[in-house]
Design goal:
By secondary structure, this protein is an alpha/beta fold. It is built from seven helices and eleven strands. It has a single domain, classed as 3-Layer(aba) Sandwich (Rossmann fold), CATH 3.40.50.1360. The longest helix has 16 residues. The model has no long low-confidence stretch (mean pLDDT 94). The chain binds 2-amino-2-deoxy-6-O-phosphono-alpha-D-glucopyranose (GLP).
Length: 253
């Protein structure tokens, strides 16, 4: 793992955008996208930097980590809608190259298997963007998820439901299930880029980076990945025991 600690959310977003942009300059790039409030700044910076240098976003293929079960893609809280709003539309990503897990399929199991196959057919994911849940979840792999898990339906924990309730209107119940890439699926991406910001993530970040590798903290799987780059702001890094005293970068290899 390579852990970089930056001053604040904006610095994390700017650094993340540079890293993603470098990956997108290659031929036929396949980008793994994440939702949540954390990567919003990254997408904004990425679109600006990409446009500045004339990058053609319609060349890229994307695979998203997860989607709620039962929310149609036009639902305001669906992750499909989130991606169009925060990245795809403004960047000019080709809808034909966008892949989202299908939370509306009649046969969810078959849809999950088809999603795995489509990642394979695309040649695998070059760079997977990740956030982290305050309970240590990755995508919607909740604590207890097998480290080798594949794309599947996952029941959400009360912690995740309450964390994400803020995105839903009053009296609107968030879906209790989601389709998520598995930890095994995520670990096959050639590079991982995890972002975390704020004190609310500090304990999860500490457990993920310094705790034992365990299904009880799904993000601890990152310790086993050969190319995992972690970007934290000071607040998200505040519970780490090991860090460079005066620099911004702490290599943990
Ligand atoms: C959701 C997503 C995750 C995301 C997490 C953190 O549950 N499924 O992929 O990493 O929330 O979200 P936020 O960035 O809003 O804290």
């Amino acid at each position: 793992m390579f852990v970089e600690i930056l001053s604040d959310y904006d610095a994390v977003s700017a650094r993340a955008a540079e890293i993603v942009l470098a990956a997108l300059r290659r031929e036929n790039p396949v980008l793994g996208c994440a939702t949540g409030s954390t990567p919003i700044g990254l997408y904004r910076r990425l679109i600006a930097l990409g446009n500045e240098e004339g990058l053609d976003f319609s060349r890229i293929a994307t695979f998203n980590l997860d989607e709620y079960v039962g929310l149609p893609p036009e639902h305001p809280q669906s992750y499909g809608r989130f991606m169009r709003e925060h990245f795809f539309d403004a960047a000019g990503v080709d809808p034909a190259r966008v892949h989202m897990p299908d939370g509306m399929a009649d046969d969810l199991e078959a849809a999950c298997a088809a999603y795995e196959r489509s990642i394979e057919v695309a040649g695998g994911i070059d760079l997977q963007i990740l956030g982290i849940g305050s309970n240590g979840h990755l995508a919607f792999n909740e604590p207890g998820s097998s480290l080798g898990s594949r794309t599947r339906v996952q029941a959400l924990t009360e912690k995740t439901l309450s964390d994400n309730a803020r995105f839903f209107g009053e009296g609107e119940a968030p879906p209790r299930k989601a389709v998520t890439m598995g930890l095994g699926t995520i670990m096959e991406a050639r590079k991982l880029l995890m972002l975390a910001s704020g004190t609310g993530k500090a304990a999860a970040v500490r457990d993920a980076l310094e705790g034992p590798v365990t299904a009880m903290c799904p993000a601890s799987a990152l310790q086993m990945h050969p190319h995992a780059h972690i970007l934290l702001d000071e607040a998200a890094a505040s519970a780490l025991a090991y860090r460079h005293r005066d620099g911004v970068a702490e290599p943990k290899r």
